[in-house]
Design brief:
single chain; 554 residues; alpha/beta; Rossmann fold; 4 domains; five-stranded parallel beta sheet; 19 helices; 17 strands; 15% strand; binds guanosine-5'-triphosphate
Length: 554
C-alpha cells in the first residue's frame, strides 16, 4: 500500500471514488431515517433522534477527508440541529422538520459536487547514509589532521579546501552532507557568513553547517545562528566531540520511520489516513477490529495510536482504557480522531484515557504534523527510559532483555545469533592520566563507532562502565569475529586529544554463539570468559569462547 507520490494521488482518488459510491448508497437510508424521525410519535422521536445524531456525526467526520467538504458541513448542521431538539426535550414542531428536509436536499446536492482536492505533497523523509561527505575549510594542520583522521575512521569522506569561494562552488555543484568551516581561517567572518547563507537559499533542505572558532562569546554565537550554523565548536577542538555531534545529526535522519497504529472501523477513512502518513515517511498499520488491539501492539510496536472515538463494538475511550490496563503500553500516546467538536465531551474522553484530540475533518498536513510531533516526543521519552545517558546505548537491563528475545527468536527460526563482550583496555589509566571527562569522551566515541559500524538490526548495550555487549542476529561466529576485530582496529586508530596531548586506546573482546544456550546469563558468561582470556593474553585482541573439553571417566 506504500505509494510513490504519483500513484499516491491515484490511490487517494480511488478511495474518494469508493467513498462517493458508498455515500450514494447511504443517502436513501439516511433519507428514510429522517422520515422515520419526522413521522415518529411523542414516545419514539427521541430514540429516532439519537440514531440520526450518530449517523450524521459519522458523516460529518469523514466526508471532508474525501473531497466532500460541503456534505460534511451540512451533515454537521443536521447533527447539531437534532442534538438541540433533543436537549429541548419537546416534540419538534413542523418548521423544524421542514428545515431538516431543506438541509437534507442541500446535502444531496453537495454529494453531487465533489471539490477538486489538492493532496498533501509532503515529501518522504530522505533515507540517509552514516558515511557522510564533508567539505572542510581549515588552515591549521594541528586541527585538520586529527579531525580528518577521526572522521575517516568513522567512514566519512572529507574534502579539504583552503578557499571558501571554492568550497561554496563545490557545494553548489554537488551538495555535501555537512560543511565544516574554521572561522579563524577567514579574514572577514561577516562576508563568509553572507556567502554561506547565500548558498543555503536555493536548497530545499539546508546543508548542515558547523563552525570551529576560538571565540566563545554570545555575539559570535548569535551571528553564527543567523547565518544558519547548527554546530559551534570552541577550540581546542576534540575531534570525538565533533564526531558525536555529526552522528546525532545523521542518525536523526536515518532513524526508523515512526509507526502509527490506526484504529478505525471505517476502512476507507483508515486507508486514507494511512496513505497520507506513509507519504510523509511514517509507517502506518490499520486495525478495524478493536478486539485485536493487543496483537496489533505486539506485532507493530507503534509510536502512536490514532483512535476513532465512535466505534460500534467498543468506543475509543473504552479501548484506550483497555490499552492502559497493561503497563507495557503506558508510554504509547493515544490520539483520538473524532468529529466531536464539543470541548467538554472531548475532555470527558481524555479524562478516561488518551493524550490528545484531533477533530475531523482534518487536513492531510495537519494530521501529519500532529502525529509526527507526538511520535517524535514519544520516541525521545522511550529512549530516555531505556538508553544510557552518556552513550545513548541500551542500558544493562534492556540489552539483557533484548538478548533474551533474540535468543528465543533465533531458536524459533533456527538462526544464528552471535554475542560479544567488549572492554576498553587499561581504562583506569585513561581516567587517572587525562581525567574523568576525557574518559567519558573515549567511552562515547567507542559507542559512536559501534553504532556507526554495526548493522541497524544489531543490538548494542552499555553493559557496565567501559564494557559493551553486542548482539548480532543472523550472524555466524566467524563473521562476528571478523566484525569485532574490525571494530577493534578502527577503535585503535581514533586519536583522542586532552590538554594538547594526543593518545590512543585499545579494546579487548570475547565472542560467543548465542545458539549454545537460550539462557541469557549463560551466554553472557561465555562472552565474559572469552573477554577475560583476551585480557590475560595481553589485551587488544578478540578471542572466541571455547567450551571446555569434557573429561572422560575411565
Ligand atoms: N570516565 C569514566 N570512567 C568510568 C566510567 N565507568 C567506569 N569507569 C572507570 O573505568 C575503570 C575500569 O577499570 P578496571 O575495571 O580496573 O579496568 P581497566 O583499567 O580498564 O583495565 P583492564 O580492563 O584490565 O584492561 C574504573 O576506574 C572506573 O572508575 C564512566 O562512565 N566514565
Amino acid at each position: 500500500m506504500h505509494g510513490t507520490p504519483a500513484n499516491l494521488e491515484q490511490q487517494l482518488a480511488e478511495l474518494n471514488q469508493q467513498y462517493l459510491r458508498r455515500l450514494q448508497q447511504e443517502i436513501p437510508q439516511l433519507q428514510w431515517l429522517l422520515l422515520q424521525f419526522i413521522q415518529a410519535g411523542p414516545l419514539e422521536w427521541r430514540e429516532q433522534a439519537a440514531v440520526l445524531v450518530l449517523r450524521f456525526h459519522t458523516l460529518a467526520g469523514s466526508a471532508g477527508t474525501f473531497g466532500l467538504a460541503g456534505v460534511g458541513t451540512v451533515a454537521k448542521s443536521i447533527e447539531k440541529h437534532v442534538k438541540a431538539l433533543l436537549s429541548q426535550q419537546q416534540v419538534p414542531a413542523r418548521e423544524e422538520h421542514a428545515l431538516l428536509q431543506q438541509y437534507f436536499v442541500e446535502m444531496q446536492q453537495a454529494a453531487g459536487q465533489p471539490t477538486a482536492q489538492s493532496f498533501s505533497k509532503a515529501k518522504p523523509q530522505r533515507q540517509d547514509k552514516t558515511d557522510a561527505r564533508i567539505l572542510l575549510l581549515c588552515h591549521d594542520p594541528l586541527i585538520s589532521q586529527p579531525m580528518g583522521q577521526t572522521l575517516k575512521t568513522f567512514g566519512h569522506q572529507v574534502e579539504r579546501f583552503v578557499d571558501l569561494t571554492q568550497l561554496v562552488a563545490s557545494a553548489r555543484l554537488d551538495p555535501p552532507d555537512v560543511i565544516i568551516v574554521d572561522l579563524d581561517a577567514l579574514d572577514d567572518s561577516t562576508a563568509a557568513f553572507a556567502l554561506l547563507s547565500n548558498l543555503q537559499c536555493p536548497q530545499a533542505q539546508p546543508i548542515p553547517l558547523f563552525v570551529l572558532s576560538s571565540q566563545d562569546e554570545f555575539s559570535h554565537y548569535l551571528q553564527a545562528v543567523r547565518a544558519g550554523v547548527i554546530g559551534y565548536f570552541v577550540k581546542p577542538l576534540n575531534p570525538a566531540t565533533l564526531e558525536a555531534r555529526l552522528q546525532r545529526l545523521l542518525s536523526v535522519r536515518e532513524r526508523d520511520a515512526f509507526r502509527v497504529l490506526i484504529v478505525d472501523d471505517d476502512m476507507l477513512l483508515a486507508q486514507h489516513y494511512a496513505l497520507v502518513l506513509q507519504n510523509a515517511g511514517l509507517r502506518a498499520e490499520i486495525l478495524t477490529d478493536p478486539a485485536e488491539i493487543f496483537q496489533g501492539l505486539r506485532r507493530f510496536h507503534p509510536d502512536v495510536i490514532l483512535l476513532d472515538v465512535n466505534m460500534p463494538e467498543c468506543s475509543g475511550p473504552e479501548l484506550a482504557q483497555t490499552v492502559r490496563l497493561q503497563d507495557e503500553w503506558l508510554g504509547v500516546p493515544i490520539i483520538y480522531l473524532s468529529s466531536e467538536t464539543d470541548s467538554e465531551r472531548q475532555m470527558a474522553s481524555l479524562i478516561k484515557a488518551g493524550d490528545d484530540f484531533l477533530t475531523k475533518p482534518i487536513s492531510d498536513n495537519a494530521l501529519v504534523v500532529a502525529i509526527f510531533a507526538r511520535a517524535q516526543r514519544a520516541r525521545q521519552l522511550a529512549e530516555v527510559m531505556t538508553k544510557d545517558s552518556l552513550t545513548g546505548l541500551l542500558q544493562h537491563a534492556h540489552i539483557k532483555e533484548r538478548l533474551g528475545a533474540e535468543l528465543e527468536r533465533a531458536a524459533r527460526l533456527q538462526q544464528n545469533v552471535s554475542v560479544a563482550m567488549l572492554d576498553i583496555d587499561h581504562f583506569k589509566k585513561v581516567n587517572d592520566v587525562y581525567g574523568h571527562l576525557t574518559g567519558d569522551q573515549v567511552i562515547s566515541s567507542l559507542a559512536n563507532l559501534l553504532r556507526q559500524q554495526l548493522r541497524k538490526t544489531d543490538l548494542i548495550g552499555r553493559y557496565g562502565g567501559e564494557e559493551f555487549l553486542l548482539v548480532l542476529p543472523e550472524c555466524q561466529l566467524d563473521k562476528a569475529c571478523q566484525v569485532v576485530n574490525q571494530l577493534r582496529e578502527a577503535f585503535a586508530r581514533i586519536p583522542f586529544v586532552s590538554n594538547g596531548q594526543t593518545f590512543h586506546c585499545t579494546l579487548s573482546a570475547g565472542v560467543t554463539s548465542g545458539s549454545d544456550s537460550q539462557q541469557v546469563d549463560v551466554v553472557v558468561e561465555h562472552a565474559d570468559q572469552a573477554l577475560y582470556q583476551a585480557k590475560g593474553a595481553g589485551r587488544n585482541q578478540v578471542i572466541l569462547y571455547q567450551p571446555p573439553v569434557p573429561v572422560l571417566n575411565e
